């Protein structure tokens, strides 16, 4: 599955390093996103030293080895199982009043559920075309998922609250250790686009499936960490009827729009001096609108939409002209919250509207986005996965020093790292071309939608619809394994 292509031999790349000298410069592939000057003769000599390591399995991998084929029988057994459907209403009812047995049951649900959901996604990766699954970034995802699968399937039944504390420490560590998965997934999609090894339709379907599954798994884990933390601090405390969990917060739409807008303006100021002139958003409609939602998800969607609107406004407005407003209309209906974001940034050509929602890019655009990924400061792309001497997956929880009920425990869900925050905080000039496709998946996951209409030469109207979770909590959100 992870064998090296014959193309390497065909082009002579497996020959000795003497070919890489100043007299012989192999051509840069048309699929490469590396600039010519980045591949100096010295670097070519360094690369040549590793040519003998090419083989059917990545030499850096502790999981993808000759024994992996035989381990797949275990994976296949798990992939044939069905994930247990869970709705937000079930979560709300479950966490309304917490008991010792409820916490233990929740822990065992997570323990049993995650290996099944991971096995399904690993199987999806296994059946991808060779040129896709052999991609370096996709291989990182594969190894990460298999690491978690191996770790979880070996955890025994949890019978006490003390055992749950240790289990929560493992969950917390895995959440932190796997934050690099999202950048690898996005970069893998870009490299697949460059190589054109998967159709745009199939790539979008694969990416949507992977992202929805990632959301579901992290939601299950974060909810259990939240329940466990609440039980530790206030056992048997009763929550209000509308309670959905600590990871869902009551959001006042106006406040969050203004907060995100200020962050976007601060990022734009480094590239567009006139960004300081942008007035506060003109917001009308239901200004008192409040709803429950996950703040990181909400901020990411608003951030990408406003980022596009503000930049379009700055780029298309003449310097001597007053910058036009970006107008927000809030509609607070019984079941939905609808945000309409209108700008005068010149709009898009109609043939561009369809492509902006796709993870599949043209090879030229994908190369630019991929090069940008490598320049983003602070974005984690390396693996933290640990293994025993025999190659078994190991999870070493971070030790917690807090014993006071008023202190934060080390695995508190609200302290988890967020790749979305890193992506939002990147300098504005680092454009990835993945923002709107990602936002569309997030909106769809919560049974909402993201749409855009464009009046070419004038501006765009973007409509973000979010379902009120309290009214739609019977929908099986977490069944998107």
UniProtKB/TrEMBL annotation:
It is an enzyme of class 2 (transferase). It is found in: Mitochondrion matrix. One of its GO terms (molecular function) is ATP binding. Keywords: ATP-binding, Kinase, Mitochondrion, Nucleotide-binding, Transferase. InterPro entries: AK/P_DHK_N_sf, BCDHK/PDK_N, BCKD/PDK, HATPase_C_sf. Pfam families: BCDHK_Adom3 (PF10436). The keyword Zinc does not apply. One of its GO terms (biological process) is regulation of glucose metabolic process. Residues 85-247 form the Branched-chain alpha-ketoacid dehydrogenase kinase/Pyruvate dehydrogenase kinase N-terminal domain. The keyword NAD does not apply. Its EC number is 2.7.11.-. Its main location: mitochondrion. Residues 392-411 are annotated as: Disordered. GO terms for cellular component: mitochondrial matrix. Belongs to the PDK/BCKDK protein kinase family. PANTHER family: [PYRUVATE DEHYDROGENASE (ACETYL-TRANSFERRING)] KINASE 2, MITOCHONDRIAL (PTHR11947:SF25), PYRUVATE DEHYDROGENASE KINASE (PTHR11947). This is Protein-serine/threonine kinase. It comes from Candida theae.
């Amino acid at each position: 599955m992870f064998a090296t292509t014959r193309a390497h031999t065909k082009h002579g790349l497996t020959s000795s390093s003497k070919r890489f000298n100043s007299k012989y410069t192999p051509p840069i592939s048309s699929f490469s996103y590396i600039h010519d000057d980045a591949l100096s003769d010295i670097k070519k000599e360094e690369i040549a030293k590793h040519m003998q390591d090419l083989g059917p399995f990545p030499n850096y991998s502790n999981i993808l080895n000759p024994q992996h084929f035989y381990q797949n029988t275990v994976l296949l057994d798990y992939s044939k199982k069905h994930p247990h459907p869970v709705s937000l209403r079930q979560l709300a009812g479950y966490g309304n009043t917490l008991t010792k047995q409820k916490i233990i049951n929740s822990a065992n649900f997570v323990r049993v559920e995650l290996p099944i959901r991971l096995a399904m996604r690993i199987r999806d990766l296994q059946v991808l075309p060779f040129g896709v699954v052999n991609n370096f970034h996709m291989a990182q995802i594969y190894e990460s998922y298999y690491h978690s699968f191996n770790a979880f399937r070996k955890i025994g039944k949890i019978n006490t609250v003390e055992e749950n504390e240790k289990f929560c420490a493992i969950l917390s560590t895995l959440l932190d250790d796997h934050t690099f998965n999202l950048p690898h997934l996005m970069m893998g999609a870009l490299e697949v686009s460059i190589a054109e090894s998967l159709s745009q339709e199939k790539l979008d379907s694969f990416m949507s499936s992977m992202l929805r599954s990632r959301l579901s798994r992290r939601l299950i884990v974060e909810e259990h960490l939240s329940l466990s933390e609440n039980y530790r601090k206030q056992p048997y405390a009763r929550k209000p009827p509308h309670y959905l969990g600590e990871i869902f917060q009551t959001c006042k739409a106006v406040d969050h729009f203004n907060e995100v807008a200020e962050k976007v303006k601060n990022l734009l100021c480094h590239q567009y001096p006139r960004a300081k002139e942008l007035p506060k958003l003109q917001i009308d409609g239901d200004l008192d609108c409040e709803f429950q939602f996950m703040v990181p998800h909400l901020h990411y969607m608003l951030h990408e939409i406003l980022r596009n609107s503000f930049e379009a406004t700055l780029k298309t407005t003449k310097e001597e002209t007053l910058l036009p407003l970006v107008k927000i209309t809030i509609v607070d209906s019984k079941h939905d919250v609808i945000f309409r974001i209108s700008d005068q940034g010149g709009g898009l050509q109609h043939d561009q509207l369809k492509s902006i929602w796709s993870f599949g890019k043209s090879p030229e655009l994908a190369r630019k986005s991929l090069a940008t990924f490598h320049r983003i400061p602070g974005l984690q792309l390396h693996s933290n996965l640990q293994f025993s001497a025999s190659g078994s997956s190991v999870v070493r929880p971070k030790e917690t020093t807090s014993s006071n009920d008023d202190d934060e425990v080390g695995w508190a869900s609200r302290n988890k790292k967020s790749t979305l925050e890193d992506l939002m905080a990147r300098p504005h000039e680092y454009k990835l071309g993945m923002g709107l496709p990602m936002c569309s998946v997030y909106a769809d996951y919560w049974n909402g939608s993201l749409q855009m209409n464009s009046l070419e030469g004038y501006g765009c109207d973007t409509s973000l619809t979010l379902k009120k979770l309290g009214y739609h909590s019977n929908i099986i959100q977490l069944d998107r394994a």
